[in-house]
Amino acid sequence: MTNLKFTEQPLSEWMSREGHESNIVISSRVRIARNLSDHPFPMLATNQQLENILNQLQDVLQDSRVETYGKLYPVHLDELDELDKRVLVEKHLISPNLANDAKHGAVFISEDESLSIMVNEEDHLRIQCLYPGFQIQEAWDRASEIDDIFEDHVNFAFDDHRGFLTSCPTNVGTGLRASVMMHLPALVLTGQINRILSAVSQVGLTVRGIYGEGSEAMGNLFQISNQITLGQNEDEIIENLYGVVLQIIEHEKAARESLLNESRLRMTDRVMRSYGILSHAAIIESKEAAQRLSDVRLGVDLGLIDHLSPKVLNELNVMTQPGFLQKIYHENMAPSERDMYRAKLIREKMSN
User: Is 286 labelled a binding residue?
Assistant: First the structure.
């Protein structure tokens, strides 16, 4: 029976820890894509071949060096219902692709949920490390160490000119996708965000929403990640992302200071209106909830609200998602019902 412990609690343990610049950078993530040589890629492999790949990669996790990262719990996707899969996606423990399309797919998750190793997703192997705040170098160091352990046991698909071979051409080369999730409300409110994001795209980075490619940037949360995986080595990719994110952090800090100095009363009114709506609304859609929670988070960061912790807001960002709402209340809900239960949940959390 697949372990379901990861779908019961909204807040991953790693999210409760402090990280550098955590009032602006919510999290740092590194994901490495790999495929085994002499094996068909997942989209072309038979069920038997995928099962063999799963067994082979699972055997690697018996290496004693893996124990230094804590116990890993296996989760087999074919043993989960659709709701549990959706919750794992909402917690960023698996990709939408693994949840929707993978055959013989599995994920191995650490106790604190900071490490997840996906098998038979778009690629045979995807190693993901998550850290709170701005710790992209730390996330890369850990992912690289785990990648080395696998490389000691299996042969990866590799070309001397192209680098690591992946199912999607955009990952060929290093197979590395490094990203940070940033909360940038002040840049949005001061009208600077489009200029900043346009500049980001000029230096080999891309901007996505909270769930990556194709998702909307709700609640002023933006995922900044490398777009180039071929032609740069891993250290260059991490260094480029690190430098750009530092500049965005400084711009966001300056914009927040400007809002406080030039329109403190208006900012206080905006924050308190959102706080009031969240505390008393009878129904609320997910998009509005995300925006109101963003306002309140900004109010906490600016010292305009002093009785709420970022941990509560992190919990609500997960708990108000459609999958987790239905998990909490043990019901399959229509969108209108979710809006009612979302408001109920937020009211309860805010009053506590």
Answer: no
Q: Is 107 annotated as a binding residue?
A: no
Annotated ligand binding at 336? The verdict is no
211 CB-near residues (< 8 Å, 6+ apart): 89, 92, 96
Instruction: Indicate left, alpha or beta for 35 from its phi (over 0: left) and psi (-120 to 50: alpha).
Output: beta
Closest by CA to 293, choosing from 218, 189, 209, 202, is 218
To the question of whether residue 213 is assigned a binding role by annotation, the answer is yes
List of residues 6+ apart from 31 with CB closer than 8 A = 126, 127, 128, 129, 143, 176, 177, 178, 179
Q: Is 347 annotated as a binding residue?
A: no
Whether 279 has a binding-site annotation, put simply, is no
Q: Is 27 annotated as a binding residue?
A: yes
Does 219 belong to an annotated binding site? no
pTM of this structure: 0.91
- For 229-258, the pLDDT digits (tens) are 888 999 999 999 999 999 999 999 999 999
The candidate with the shortest Cα–Cα distance to 114, out of 179, 76, 69, is 69
Whether the CA torsion 90, 95, 99, 105 is positive or negative: it is negative
Question: For residues 110 and 146, is the Cβ–Cβ distance under 8 A?
Answer: no
181 annotated to bind ligand: yes
